[in-house]
Amino acid sequence: MSSVIVSSRSARSASRSASRRLLLSGVFAVLAACTQASSAATAPGALEAGPRAAVGDARRYEKPSDAELRRTLSPTAYEVTQREATEPPFRNAYWNHHEEGLYVDVVTGEPLFSSKDKFDSGTGWPSFTRPVESARVVEKRDESLGMTRVEVRSKAGDSHLGHLFDDGPQPTGQRYCINSASLRFVPVNDMEKQGYGEWLTLFGRKPASATPAKVDVGKALTASGVTETALLAGGCFWGMEDLLRKIPGVLQTDVGYTGGNIEKPSYQEVSSGRTGHAESVRVVFDPKVLSFATLLEDWFFRMHDPTTLNRQGNDVGTQYRSAIFVLSDEQRRVAEEVKARVNASGKWKKPVVTQVVQAGEFTPAEGYHQDYLVKNPGGYTCHYMRE
User: Fold this and answer.
1) Considering the entire predicted model, what is its pTM?
2) Phi-psi region of 163 (alpha: psi -120 to 50; beta: other; left: phi over 0)
3) DSSP state, residue 145
4) How many CA atoms lie within 13 A of 373 on its CB side?
5) Across-strand partners of 186?
6) Which residues share a beta bridge with 228?
7) Are 129 and 168 in contact (CB under 8 A)?
8) Where in the sequence numbering do the catalytic residues fall?
9) From CA 202, how far away is CA 138, in angstroms rounded?
């Protein structure tokens, strides 16, 4: 661990001289606490011993762009994972945390450590005897602070996690000294619904289903006989999708990009605001259960502010505009009628600026964007249902 940070945004913006004084005052505490574990460490017999069977996790864990990380991570998590900072000992989320479950990379969601391997090192930071799989944690030589240490980083996200020492308890004799801010905890009872069902074997459990909890669209389409698709934009697609997927009659949701002027754009290109694309959600629904008009009037126009031009909450730019990308003349007619009713309802103090335009090509977003708030509960969103 390399430096001490202050969690508040205002403190981080203080003068450089004040930051240097803070660093110097905290360095000795870091050196003392993070180089040798306390004699009060958990007894070796309390930890899981023996080799561990490989887990068949086929998920792809991808690191978001720096702009996305700045928007979604807490200031402390960003400083720790991206700038190798160190959070204060004994004043962090998991140093004294004992719940059973999985600790994953706060940046990518990649599984890193298990509560089975966690112990009390007395240092004030979460400590583990080993990662869930050795390949998921990368070791690097660190000669900062005038000593040679072994830094540990996540494989997929290259997040700074902490340091590795050889003063841990048996069976490994190792101590992974980790920043809480680099981790997100998934309770064992929530692992399957958050997509970590394969890892339940670490806890002597089996997943209830061998398949993800998401709707089997093929079966749903067959059962419904007829389906309809809507392309809706109303700000950050994470929050939109999280609300849309829960609507009765919705069979499938995918986030992506539409309405732009280049083919198959990446998030990096769309986030520049220069491609003309909007972050949008493709919604497949059963019109016998949910009509297009109801989807718009009772849901779409209530889950975002349709009166703010090119903006939702803190997200600003044309990629965050409010738009209904219609796929037929009938959808255009219904969308225009609903928009007019909403505009005349008096529920909004300003005019509705939602675009009703012909849909172009829809490009699915990168994998880490799909079902983001399912994989990252408590993640960033500015969407909620208005009365």
Assistant:
1) 0.58
2) beta
3) G
4) 20
5) 102
6) 285
7) yes
8) 177, 236
9) 21
